[in-house]
């Protein structure tokens, strides 16, 4: 389906398990990996949702936004 839609191969989605997402994404960018641009509204909404959640994000949210990292969680973390 991806190839039919985009006309060539590519990566649609990756999930990472890393102890340092900031460094991991920064290094991938340094090596030329391109990421989708995430709208500012995503991070505004994320900050609002996190205020009403028990989840604590240890990384700096401004850096997460700058690197266009998406955050996935549920109420159990």
UniProtKB/TrEMBL annotation:
EC number(s) stated in the UniProt entry for this protein: 1.13.11.27
Keywords: Iron, Phenylalanine catabolism, Repeat, Tyrosine catabolism
UniProt-listed GO biological process terms: L-phenylalanine catabolic process; L-tyrosine catabolic process
GO MF entry, a single one: 4-hydroxyphenylpyruvate dioxygenase activity
Annotated Gene3D superfamilies: 2,3-Dihydroxybiphenyl 1,2-Dioxygenase, domain 1
UniProt cross-references to InterPro entries, sorted A to Z: 4OHPhenylPyrv_dOase (IPR005956), Glyas_Bleomycin-R_OHBP_Dase (IPR029068), VOC_core (IPR037523)
Name of the protein this chain belongs to: 4-hydroxyphenylpyruvate dioxygenase
PROSITE patterns per UniProt: VOC
Domain VOC: 1-77
Enzyme class: oxidoreductase
Pathway recorded for this protein: Amino-acid degradation; L-phenylalanine degradation; acetoacetate and fumarate from L-phenylalanine: step 3/6
Requisite cofactors: Fe cation
Family: Belongs to the 4HPPD family.
Species of origin: Rotaria socialis
